[in-house]
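We both want to read discrete structure tokens more fluently, so let's practise on a single case. Once you have written the record down, we can walk along the chain together.
***
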Amino acid sequence: MDALLVESFERLLQGACSPAVVREAERSLDVAGLWSELQASGYLDLLVPGEGDAGLRDAFALWLAAGRHTLPVPLAQTMWARGLLGAQAPAGPIALAAQVQTRGGEVHCAGVPFGAVAQGLLLRTPDGAWCVPLAAAQVQRSGVHGSLQADIVLPSWPDGALPLPGDVDLQAAGALITATSMAGALERLLAMTLQYANDRTQFGKAIGKFQAVQQQLAVLAEQAFAARMAAELACADTGLHPQRLRAAVAKARAAEAAEKAVAIAHAVHGAIGVTAEFDLQLVTRRLQEWRGDHGSAAYWHAELGTALLAARGPTVPFLIDTLLPAAAAREGGSA
């Protein structure tokens, strides 16, 4: 994506999505002003057919920035939904259901990320994949402090439900979007922790000068960059549909990185890191929640292992042919 567009999007989020805005959204669920600014910017339509024929590769930098700013609305999910539906897509925020069950005519969606602020929902039923309006839905927040996750119940099948075109893997898309958001949040976590280590002094010098702290910061940086690399590889496609196993690697790697990085960040910050007034918890709470969204690391590791065993061949060719984008595999093979 053009660097000027990404820079413009960063400036938009810096002005529209301050930590104070995130806190207020978590408290009141009032995201109308923020959503209006995002809508007016035009970025939500990046993936709409005919608007430039952009794909996952083009959206990656924006989704990364959304995670870096802990954006309290489902921007990435809405962009992807609009890419699938085009002009038919509803106007408000669109979330993506992770777990769906039908019971006696009701549709139950458990633990929907951003479900508390969504107006539309992508979900899969036995009849296919749909985008449904939530005007008549029953929405129950998770109860976890600051969480925007919610259980959603549709008492009956809503009017205005739109079928999603083609064979859509909602779980892979949700995993990839979440992994990319986590990679952005991990970059923010690394920057905050480095800044604090350089500012906080003990025994007459910055704690970042102590070898034990430096070692932990190096591990944190390693985890953040590994998560970004996995997410970027999974977003390397020019189309809208992620390759499932690459999305699996991205989500599993991001979840592993978050577990280690959050522990290190809080250790370096000490007691101040868990206080509500300090911005660190805005990032670490979100990372901890995202670890389980659309499949945990253990879930995706099992799927990757099953695919490797089914391939019945050497591991390295499987990794190159299946988990690397075609262009990267060709470059690696010619090196």
The chain has two domains: 3-163, 170-323. The chain has twelve helices and ten strands. Residues 3-163 form one domain.
